[in-house]
Amino acid sequence: MEEAPHRPWPSIPPVGAPEVQRAIPTTILSFDIGQTLVELDLDFLALRLRERGLEVAPGALAAASPAAWAHYDVLTDQGIGHPWRELMAALVHGAGVPAAQVDPMVQWLWEQQPTVNLFRRPIAPMVELARELRAGATPLIVVSNSEGRLAQLLAEIGLADLFDVVIDSGRLGIEKPDPRIFEHALAAISAPADASVIHIGDAWSADITGALGVGWRAIWYGRRARPVDDPRVGVAADADGVRATLQRWGVL
């Protein structure tokens, strides 16, 4: 588990001070990272492929992306979980990598992923929203299924200053939707028992079901989000939708 140091909010004493439980804001925003605040960086992927002697244009990867993600969606709907390798295989093959080279390339990318994360392109409107929330003294945390170096990645791409706590499943050894990872996040930020927490993420099972399971509200974000008949769940295709839900819930 990687935890960013606590940063006192304006007029709020540092964590650990006796009065902190009374002073901490009552609403905490929790973010997933991949496909919520950052997305697959196709330019960076093209550079990585070039390191292995394969010239693949970012435009070719972009053209192959819809079919690759559709394949990924089918697999996740079948309960496979997080078919990262299958996504990458469909993507690079669709972009023109010869079939015989796909599996070795995907294996190399997978082995490199913990230290050279391909999901590193900030989703600008979502980052802008997070910065607005941060400026308004809303505590922000990360609860993400990752490979163990998420805090370092956020520092590399200039987002580390946004978050008070970063919970990385690769370091904690517990993945969403296990309730313990969400409970650990609250303990790490010293949240009061009556804190209201909203988690924003793109995966129904890991993010939304997981958050609801510990009594949080949730915003289902992204291209797969669909209307849900549950007052605890907001649905947002983009940052404007997230903003609208937060406004409706009185956070903005």
Order of H and E elements: HEEHHHHEHEHEHHEHEEH
In the CATH hierarchy, what is the architecture of the largest domain at level 2?
3-Layer(aba) Sandwich
Stretches with pLDDT under 50, minimum 5 residues: 1-22
- Largest sheet, strands/sense/barrel: 6 strands, parallel
Estimated structural class: alpha/beta
Number of strands: 8
Any idea how many domains? 2
Spatial strand order of the main sheet: 5-4-1-6-7-8
Top CATH class of the largest domain: Alpha Beta
Question: Alpha-carbon distance between the termini?
Answer: 30 Å
Query: Helix tally?
Result: 11
Average pLDDT works out at 90
How would you sum up the global shape? globular
CATH-wise, what's the superfamily of the largest domain?
Answer: HAD superfamily/HAD-like
Q: Level of helix content?
A: 40-55%
Radius of gyration: 19 Å
CATH-defined fold name of the largest domain: Rossmann fold
List keywords for this structure.
single chain, 252 residues, alpha/beta, Rossmann fold, DNA polymerase, domain 1, 2 domains, six-stranded parallel sheet, two-stranded antiparallel sheet, 44% helix, 14% strand, globular, disordered N terminus
